[in-house]
Specification:
The protein is of the alpha/beta class. It is built from 14 helices and seven strands. Strand 2, helix 5 and strand 3 form a beta-alpha-beta unit. About 6% of the residues have low confidence.
Length: 312
């Protein structure tokens, strides 16, 4: 039995190896991913993003529990910072979500950003596709934590959930960061803290100022993710808000999927060009060698760059 067949049958070990090979950009793995594409398109992708420390992983952990109670299979792609030593992910989401490790209906994969901007890993699209082909009905992508311009989760997910907490301080900075521009659902987590109601009011005002989509199209939910699935946690309200957004987007499903495909293709083009450029650099003695020729005034920086592009 081929690895593709094993993945389609839900074999976790084969899927994990394929994801590792995709993260390492092995050509054989990419060919296998191409073969899996006709079997994708059924899983619903949810993006979880927000400022570091907002409790995104705790919220994801609670969402997994609720979806499993509804007998839905859940795949999680957790994008973490890169270790400067191993190049791997360093936050260890499997430790945070350890209680789900033995559940056959849950697959959690950590990815390192490897310097990728946007809060996502270069392989995020690919891993989500593998989970989709395996039959996971909810695929949750948790970003490393966003800042200014790091809002790429919108391009990967069908519903983007932005998590914030009371008392961040600089509301104007939140607008500048562009986080509100991508929100389909806003979650004020740690709502048992002082200032939660004020945070909700401020978010409503910011949505009015946003001017792109009226606030009636973005639901704001208060939650205490550390309470898990208890009624007072508000996590069930988060699930409801996601489901309601999915229903509202039903009429625009093709448009949303087309936008996602456009983002994916654009990302792949940039990635493939970067790979070829790096190979061309190595063939010409590496970036350091070209830089040395520029320092010696043997050629100018533009000519050096053009020489690399000509060999692509």
């Amino acid at each position: 039995m081929s690895r593709i067949e094993k993945v389609l049958e839900g074999d976790v070990r084969s899927a994990a190896r394929l994801m590792r090979d995709l993260d390492d950009r092995l050509p054989g793995a990419i060919e296998e991913l191409k073969a899996l594409h006709p079997h994708t398109g059924k899983g619903y992708i949810i993006g979880i993003t927000g400022n570091p420390g907002a409790g995104k992983s705790t919220l994801v952990d609670a969402l997994i529990t609720l979806y499993r109670q509804a007998r839905l299979r859940v795949g999680v792609v957790a994008v973490d910072p890169t270790s400067p030593f191993s190049g791997g992910a360093i936050l260890g989401d499997r430790i945070r979500m350890q209680r789900h490790a033995s559940d056959e209906g849950v697959f959690i994969r950590s990815l390192a950003t490897r310097g990728q901007l946007g809060g996502l890993s270069r392989s995020t699209f690919d891993v989500a596709s593998v989970l989709d082909a395996m039959g996971y009905e909810r695929i949750i992508i948790e970003t490393v934590g966003v800042g200014q311009d790091e809002i790429e989760v919108m391009k990967t997910a069908y519903t983007s959930v932005v998590v914030t907490v009371p008392g961040l301080g600089d509301d104007i900075q939140a607008i500048k960061a562009g986080i509100l521009e991508i929100a389909d659902v806003l979650v004020v987590n740690k709502a048992d803290r002082d200032g939660a109601d004020r945070a909700v009011r401020d978010l409503f005002q910011m949505l009015d100022l946003r001017g792109v989509v009226g606030r009636q199209d973005v639901e704001i939910v208060k939650a205490i993710a550390t309470q898990g699935t208890r009624p007072e946690s508000g996590v069930a309200d988060v699930v409801r808000a996601i489901d309601e957004h999915r229903e509202r987007m039903g009429a625009h499903e093709i448009q949303r999927k087309t936008e996602r495909a456009m983002a994916h293709i654009g990302e792949l083009v940039r990635g493939l060009l970067a790979d070829r450029a790096n190979a061309a650099l190595r063939a010409q003695g590496g970036l350091e060698g070209l830089a040395a020729s520029v320092v010696k005034r043997e050629q100018d920086p533009y000519s050096a760059a053009e020489s690399v592009l000509k060999s692509l």
